[in-house]
Known about the structure:
Blueprint: H1 30-51, E1 71-78, E2 87-93, H2 104-116, E3 140-147, E4 150-157, H3 161-169
Amino acid sequence: MPAAPAAPTASAESAAPAAPAVPVRIRPAPALLEIRMLRRIALASLATAAAGTTGLGPLPPLPLIAPPAPDALTVAVSRSGHPEADGTFELRCGDRPGGDHPAAERACERLERLAEADEDPFRPVPEDRVCAQVYGGPVLARVTGTWQGREVDARFSRANGCEIDRWENLEPVLPLVRG
């Protein structure tokens, strides 16, 4: 049997010169450096706190954040057919319900429940909503002011089923009237 041909060998002239060995230094990513720095600061703070001093002196007081302004609404009702229901009433809600609204406490409780349920009782009925053609009477109301930190300017009627539902959802802010 003939012998297998020998594999070609590279001559010294045809071999590529080997690149000189360069030491490679791997640097940690910037985020890793930040983590290490924060860890050192935290450990130093703990050691200082354990020693009983902060080294910083007294800390400044925290800034006070003003509480949100209480709800303040003006409710104007007309053409209800009930003299005690017609008129303009002020309603203030917050720590203590106030104003000259005839049912201030219950009205504020209702507004609070609506806010907790994340409902906006002042949003108008969408124009594309199909509403029952039921007439609830000529009564009109307008509510203006501030509720949950935002401006309110809403009009109410009892012209159809959707408007009647919207009105009744806001009772006793709006008076109980039946056409």
